[in-house]
Design goal:
The protein has 103 residues and is α+β, with helices and mostly antiparallel strands. It contains three helices and six strands. It has helices at residues 66-71, 74-92, 97-101, and strands at residues 5-8, 11-18, 25-29, 43-45, 52-55, 61-63.
């Protein structure tokens, strides 16, 4: 198994991947609680489109099953909805990825 490597506080390097929904490339992950790096079985949310995936044993993202999505805590579902809405508004106003996430 490939273990996430800390990059800076709260960010971890994970194997390169591409979102199956929007094509966004990624190789970083963080934990919403900040308590630890991502682990196999954890959910991951694309910062570009809000698609939910899960880390497999090799720390690669795989599509979420309908059952996994249904079992997510309500606060996680609200957070994902907020990410999707924020991204939709940002795109409508012409903001770039960097402007949204790297201020």
């Amino acid at each position: 198994m490939s273990h996430p490597r800390p990059l800076k506080e709260g960010e971890y390097v994970v194997p390169h991947g591409v979102c199956v929904v929007c094509g966004h490339h990624f190789d970083l992950a963080s934990n919403a609680t900040g308590e630890r790096g991502p682990q196999p079985g954890d959910a991951s949310v694309c910062v570009e489109c809000g698609d939910v995936t899960f880390f497999d044993e090799e720390m690669r993202r795989r599509p979420a099953t309908p059952e996994e999505l249904a079992e997510m805590p309500e606060d996680a579902k609200r957070a994902i909805a907020a990410i999707k809405l924020t991204n939709k508004i940002a795109k409508a106003t012409g903001m770039t990825y960097s402007e949204r996430f790297h201020k």
